[in-house]
Amino acid sequence: MHFDNSYARELTGLYVPWKPAQVPEPRLLTLNRSLARELGWDVAFLESADGAALLAGNTVPEGAEPLAQAYAGHQFGGFSPQLGDGRAVLLGEVIDRQGQRRDVAFKGSGRTPFSRGGDGKAAVGPMLREALIGEAMHALGIPTTRALAVAATGEPVIREQVLPGAVLTRIAASHLRVGTFEFFAARGELDKLGRLADYAIARHDPDLAGAPDRHLTLLRRVAQRQAELVARWMCVGFIHGVMNTDNMTISGETIDYGPCAFMEAYDPGAVFSSIDQNGRYAWARQPAVAQWNLARLAEALLPLMVREDQDEAAANEVVEQATAAIGDFPALYQAAQLRGLRAKLGLAPGSPASDDAQDAALASAWFDLMQAQQIDFTLGWRRLADAAEGDDGPLRALLPHKGHADLAQWLERWRARCTREDEANPGSDQGARERAARMRRANPWIIPRNHRVEEALQAASAEGDLQPFERLLAAVCEPFDEQPRYARYAEPAPLAVTAAYQTFCGT
């Protein structure tokens, strides 16, 4: 394992050197072998007893410089000036086989100076959830942190009950968060803030290095990445559950799979997190929350954007530019979402038949129909591909009979739009079969169904049986192919089960 630890090397004062806690009985529960190979690591070693000791935190690999990162965050709208890695340790960074720099971090590895009275530990169930959902998101093509491994610790973790402990090894483009910038901005530590911003630029936007307006452009780049990310969440019915500013990355990766879930029966107000009592992070509110979080990033970066030698008029202009960058977010998001929805509707990008307002209205009408008829979000979109080939039966089967007339009306409107596109592109890769194939590449058949996730995690945590987890993991890693062996994982839970479902943060 060849580490090259730029965070430790270049950002002294922005972290606390810290080692993971020792555990009594390290044991490997799951290993992401393909990810290990991407990193250039020896799978056989990681699967050995020595590998388990490393992945549980008992052994620090040569070249690693473990540390706890400092950051703040707005949690459910309220500012916490010091959060930091309360139960995580950044081991360091490696350069993978593609030449990309990636963080290697532990989660659940014991107390740090930022633990705020917590035990710094994690339980098997939540760590396996993060591994499972992260790989599902990766298979869906959504930028995400990923779990390299989950290792049991052999010690109990006290929550509402006694649970078996575990450590997760997380791989990320970086662990830089909006809250990282808030931490130093709130303290007025502008030298550290400036070093952090230049480090983030060098790591994620190197073409901006040294540019006079680099901090403003960094804000715009982060906004673009977050617009793309949240649009992808929305297109698969994913609800993050805890979109605090310490859980928004500068890289544009999804991070922290705590009280997250995938929507089943379509409901724009869907909330599954037990701690989101007021629906702040409901499915439909995620774009607005992302914009709110970006405004907090703009506030943190503003002292770097306004130079000391600028007069009041110039400073006001910078503030207006930063405000405009945040104000542009809804348009960035809407454009990203419309691209995703067109793909899900089987509409080709850049077609002469495209009209943004009309296509958005067509998609909105489909959402209204799904909500009125309580159509399963994932299967509704998937069965639309069958309808593209002329078979409306599987889609009609998802609706009560009284909704068939409304469905027929919408399908007529959609097919007219598809026909206009085909006529505008004679000789191109169009037609029913080609359209349906494209739609099946954009609309998954399998997502991590909440009841299947709980079933797998319960077996692993309460019974030590990892087979349900491994089977579910295999299914969610092939989300677009309808295979009979995975049929049970495509079935929605009964509406009553979904309505009562809650997720928890694991701390």
Quick rundown:
It is built from 20 helices and eleven strands. It has 507 residues and is an alpha+beta fold.
Provide an overview of this structure.
By secondary structure, the chain is an alpha+beta fold. The chain folds into three domains: 170 residues, no CATH class; 157 residues, no CATH class; 105 residues, no CATH class. The chain contains 20 helices and eleven strands. The protein is globular. The mean pLDDT is 95.
Using brief descriptors, characterize the structure shown.
5-stranded antiparallel β-sheet; 11 strands; two-stranded antiparallel sheet; alpha+beta; 507 residues; globular
Secondary structure elements and their pairing?
Elements: H1 6-10, E1 15-17, E2 27-31, H2 33-39, H3 43-46, H4 49-55, E3 67-69, E4 73-75, E5 78-80, E6 88-95, E7 101-107, H5 124-139, E8 146-158, E9 162-172, H6 178-186, H7 190-204, H8 214-236, E10 238-239, E11 261-262, H9 286-305, H10 312-327, H11 329-345, H12 356-373, H13 377-388, H14 393-396, H15 404-424, H16 432-442, H17 450-463, H18 467-476, H19 487-490, H20 495-499
Antiparallel strand pairs: 1-3, 2-8, 4-5, 6-7, 7-9, 8-9, 10-11
